[in-house]
Amino acid sequence: MQTEQELKELVRRKYSEIALQDKETNMSSCCGSGGCSTEVYNIMSDDYTKMEGYHADADLGLGCGLPTEFAQIKEGDTVIDLGSGAGNDCFIARKATGEKGKVIGIDFTEAMIEKARANAEKVGFNNVEFRQGDIEKMPVTANVADVVVSNCVLNLVPNKDGVFKEIFRVLKPGGHFSISDVVLVGNLPDKLRNVAEMYAGCISGAIQKDDYLALIQANGFTNITLQKEKAIVVPDDILNQYLSAEEITNFKNSGLGIFSITVFAQKPAACCTPGSGCC
After folding, report:
1. If both were cysteines, with which of 53, 104, 128, 175 could 171 make a disulfide (CB 3.0 to 4.6 Å apart)?
2. pLDDT mean over 152-179
């Protein structure tokens, strides 16, 4: 079993490589990981191209939802995007916030930060910035964000509880998040869960859907709403790299579900910290 730090370094290395891959490679794999599928194109990601503020250079095809579509961003809002990649969701958020708002993208990987900053220069946005940092310890002060968004990133973080605590900290009272992520219903085969490549590919780092929603509630959020849910089917040509034919059949008949969900939740308008008794 790898340590949390080892898993983080795995993600950092893999997403440095992904920053240099083309969009088609990323979209035909599991969140840009290796083992690209020739059977199915667009395994997880949704189509951003019709959303206002879309910039093709910033779309790496890495997501598993459209959190900014559901994020209820208003003009003048301050928005934080966790795992901002090349800036796709940041630029769409900026369209909603306008010139009066502010968008902060946070990413763990230097190559992604460089790519996002270059994209921001191309479009001339002076109120979109990108900060390199760990979303378990965000380089942002408390109570600054009206909205937090994230697309298929928390499943890559070993300490998901720590991320939700950080989201609570940086949101203003009354602020909210809209997050797309991968979750499970049922137990993933050990061979998939233990393969590092599948961790960097989002799936083996996912936790049970009920546990995911319980973490949100335990951290003091209210108005928890499932905004969208879709099943994810991992093609045989990817499964063949990790499982035997018999194991694939058992996997498909196991009742296991892999889902992309988009979740909304709100920080109470007048609240201290979870567990203090005032919420």
Report:
1. 175
2. 94
- Give SS3 for 90: helix
Cα 204 from chain centroid (whole Å) = 14
Helix (H, G, I), strand (E, B) or coil at 216: helix
Local confidence band at 30 (pLDDT 50, 70, 90 cut-offs): very low
Dihedrals phi, psi of 135, to nearest 5 degrees: -75, -10
Whether the CA torsion 195, 133, 230, 20 is positive or negative: it is: negative
User: Is 60 exceeded by the pLDDT of residue 201?
Assistant: no
In order, the DSSP letters of 118-157 are HHHHHHT-SSEEEEE-BTTB-SS-TT-EEEEEEES-GGG-
* Neighbouring-strand partners of residue 14: none
pTM, two decimals, is 0.83
Distance between CA 73 and CA 96 in Å, rounded? 6
Listed residue (57, 112, 106, 111) closest to 83, CA to CA: 106
Residue pLDDT, tens place only, 209-259: 999 999 999 999 999 999 999 988 877 877 888 888 998 898 888 888 888
Residue type, 84: S
Using CA atoms, how far apart are residues 40 and 238, in angstroms rounded to an integer? 10
Nearest to 64 by CA among 164, 201, 170: 201
Domain 4-266 in CATH 3.30.565.10: no
